[in-house]
Amino acid sequence: MPLNINTDKENDIEDLQYDIDDSRATDRWSDAPAPIKELFHVLEWNIIDGEHAGTTKLIDQALSHQVSPRTLIAGPMAMGIAEVGRRFKMDEYFLPEVMMSAKCMQAALGTLKPLIVAEKSEDIGTVVIGTVQGDLHDIGKKIVGMMMEAAGFTVVDLGVSVPPEDFIAAIRKHKPKIVGFSALLTTTMNMQWETLKVIKAEGLREDVRVFVGGAPISQAWCDKIGADAYASDALVAVDKAKACITTFASMKGGDPQLHAKMLAIDAEREAMKAKAAVA
Length: 279
Ligand code: B12
Prior knowledge:
The protein is α/β, with parallel strands linked by helices. It has 13 helices and 5 strands. The chain has a 5-stranded parallel beta sheet, sandwiched between helices. The N and C termini lie far apart (41 Å).
């Protein structure tokens, strides 16, 4: 089966040429009260400009206005780093600028993590997560880990550039219900497949539900490599992870029925969105 990677969005020059100032003019965050709206703009630009010395102060200010950590992550932080990605793609930014912006994200997540993790009330199982070998991106993986932890999972984060054998060792040691692979590069996404093959070869496939994610990853990729679930963001990942250990607890990793149930969760979400849009 040929591999189709959906890069339409990344390669759509018109889409990439829009300038963030246009979106500023369209009054982004218009739902928010004025001081929060301004703070969101400043935080977004702090990330775009890579001014990491001031990031935690802005996060503290937003928290003092009762803005939730999740809103900050999914709102101005996500918008800021997405703009950085666009600038990098368009050669408006080079690696040093991206690294400065990544430092802002890390600083912000460092402040937010304890607050998110504090939401954890009960222990519902272990998740092992890591960025696959050859890949150093970890911001998205950290967000997924935090949200899983808040949802009640014990999260074992193996870090970045994790070789398959380290995933195997962690599965044997921690006996997780779920294993998550993150990959942000088209050149490293194949390591998700390679790692999964090693899990199978070691006879561990039925023991773990395999989740995959990262910017170039799609449901089609998940289907192709035989992973159990794909999640486009941390909230979807949490929903599916919880479903795996509650409603579908009896289904083992690699079970096609579990895969189908995970797809049904997406279909349900899409139907709800469509209903809300009509209402
Ligand atoms: C920040 C960044 C960096 C930082 C990373 C710092 C860090 N500690 O992570 C640095 C500067 C180190 C970096 C380096 C490189 N980068 Co870079 N980087 C980015 C950038 C701008 C943002 C990534 C990010 O953090 N996004 C924000 C998070 C929140 O989103 P996310 O990662 O997608 O995660 C969400 C979901 O995907 C999902 N998810 C993520 N992981 C998982 C895991 C599971 C299990 C699940 C269920 C869900 C899930 O949930 C997350 C939260 O909602 C992207 C641009 C982009 N559009 O992605 C480029 C980008 C990924 N980088 C790119 C490139 C080319 C590189 C370099 C090769 C550059 C170079 N010439 O050296 C190196 C590679 C180094 C390496 N070996 O890994 C390209 C990749 C192109 C491609 N098609 O492969 C991109 C797309 C930029 C571009 N448009 O060209 N990069």
